[in-house]
């Protein structure tokens, strides 16, 4: 099966999103707004930590509230992933492309995928953290073994002696990075294959088996083509808004909006990649190329010569009896 190009994936994802208004509503309510609220919660938490005279009871009460708020916002974003994958799955089932779903209906029907996606993401994070201990434990032991790390007045000397040697431990992160890449498609598998939890993670590892180089090139290419322009545009707009009142608020709203749109295009591309990796692009691949007019498989030219009609079809000559009364 031919591998899809990065430009074709991005262009096809954007064209697909334009046809479904419910995707944009899902992006607004389940990606952009939760991201903005998440940033506000984290900023408020940082400001609270800098306040003097905090009691332990108040500190832990606010901390638990922040954790619950972040968990709720992550759940909403998992709901958004389920909505995007569900509408893509329906487009697969209705190949004529005439299926339309309202955001209200999509929101209700995709809720059943929100919990499995959220819990599977937590399970995946636990596995990644467990594998990352191969790096964290030696790095922590090294930092504690180096005495008087910040006593020198020279910052460069402190970094060279204390932190730069940590780069020697970076190869120990490879198992965690490897597992992260292999399980990239777990959320797609939850919706398209109706699997969940460990089964969805195993399904993603199965479809990426022996194709790690292609998966890495696709993910890096999509990330560079989709997210880098969004970040560059956010930076440019942020520099432009510096002269306006409340530039941080406006910059945050515009930045999260651009990131949400980029995330939508990226998720749609993941569905197409998943179908290509499964080797069943006819059933799974949402982003089909435009239909080209196929040449007629058989072109017949009738030649009447005397009492015989000769039909020439793709180099095959067929002698047919003449019609009655010829």
Task: Present the secondary structure layout.
Layout lengths: L5 H13 L2 H29 L6 H38 L9 H43 L9 H9 L10 H9 L3 H7 L5 H10 L4 H29 L6 H32 L2 H4 L15 E6 L2 E6 L2 E5 L6
Helix pairs in contact: 1-9, 1-10, 2-3, 2-4, 2-10, 3-4, 3-7, 3-10, 4-6, 4-7, 7-8, 9-10
Alpha-carbon Rg, integer: 28 Å
Shape label: globular
**Are there runs of 5+ residues with pLDDT below 50, and where?**
281-321
Strand arrangement within the widest β-sheet reads: 1-2-3
The termini sit apart by: 52 Å
Q: Which bin fits the share of residues in helices?
A: 55-70%
Tell me the β content: 5-15%
Mean pLDDT: 79
Quick one: biggest sheet?
3 strands, antiparallel
- For the secondary structure, the number of strands is 3
Secondary-structure element sequence? Answer: HHHHHHHHHHHEEE
Give me the secondary-structure category.
mainly alpha
Quickly count the helices: 11
């Amino acid at each position: 099966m031919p591998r899809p190009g990065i430009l074709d994936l991005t262009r096809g994802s954007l064209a697909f999103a334009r046809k479904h208004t419910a995707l944009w509503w899902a992006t607004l309510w389940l990606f952009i707004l939760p991201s903005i609220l998440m940033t506000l919660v984290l900023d408020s938490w940082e400001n609270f930590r800098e306040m003097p005279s905090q009691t332990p009871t108040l500190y832990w009460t606010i901390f638990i509230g922040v954790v619950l708020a972040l968990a709720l916002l992550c759940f909403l974003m998992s709901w958004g992933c389920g909505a995007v994958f569900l509408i893509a799955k329906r487009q697969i089932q209705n190949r004529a492309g005439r299926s339309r779903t309202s955001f209200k209906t999509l929101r209700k029907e995709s809720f059943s995928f929100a919990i499995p996606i959220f819990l599977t993401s937590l399970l995946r994070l636990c596995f990644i953290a467990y594998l990352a201990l191969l790096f964290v434990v030696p790095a922590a032991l090294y930092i504690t073994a180096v005495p008087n790390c910040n006593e020198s007045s020279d910052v460069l000397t402190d970094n060279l002696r204390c932190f730069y040697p940590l780069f020697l431990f970076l190869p120990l992160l490879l198992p965690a990075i490897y597992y992260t890449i292999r399980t990239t498609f777990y959320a797609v598998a939850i919706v398209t294959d109706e699997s969940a939890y460990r089964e969805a993670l195993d399904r993603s590892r199965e479809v990426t088996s022996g194709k790690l180089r292609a998966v890495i090139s696709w993910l890096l290419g999509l990330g560079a083509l989709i997210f880098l322009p969004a970040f560059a545009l956010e930076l440019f707009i942020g520099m432009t808004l510096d002269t306006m009142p409340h530039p941080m608020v406006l910059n945050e709203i515009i930045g999260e909006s651009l990131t949400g749109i980029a995330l939508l295009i990226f998720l749609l591309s993941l569905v197409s990649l998943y179908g290509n990796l499964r080797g069943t692009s006819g059933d799974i691949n949402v982003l089909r190329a435009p239909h080209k007019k196929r040449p007629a498989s058989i072109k017949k030219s009738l030649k009447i010569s005397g009492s015989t009609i000769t039909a020439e079809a793709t180099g095959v000559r067929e002698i047919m009896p003449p019609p009655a009364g010829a």
